[in-house]
Specification:
about 80 residues; mainly alpha
Length: about 80
């Protein structure tokens, strides 16, 4: 792990200490958990944005049959489930 220092307001520090006490965790564990959740949330948002930007990129291609591709992807998904 890499040590990082942050500045908190007094109100934030009290709330963090309370959460840690209730969970039976250290303040560092609570902070790491919150950061992990924040990262996941932003990764999902970024993924959705990329998918939106990619929508329709094959629309004008005549050498690709989207229905066949979807059927193949569905078959692979069903086999892996």
């Amino acid at each position: 792990m890499i040590r990082t220092q942050i500045y908190l307001t007094e109100k934030e520090q009290i709330a963090l200490r309370t959460i840690a006490d209730v969970q039976g965790a250290t303040q560092s564990e609570v902070i790491r958990e919150a950061i992990d959740q924040y990262i996941v949330m932003h990764q999902q948002t970024h993924r959705v944005q990329l998918l939106r930007e990619a929508r329709g990129i094959w629309a004008d291609r005549e050498d690709i049959n989207a229905e066949d591709l979807r059927a193949e992807w569905d078959r692979q998904f069903e086999e892996s489930a």
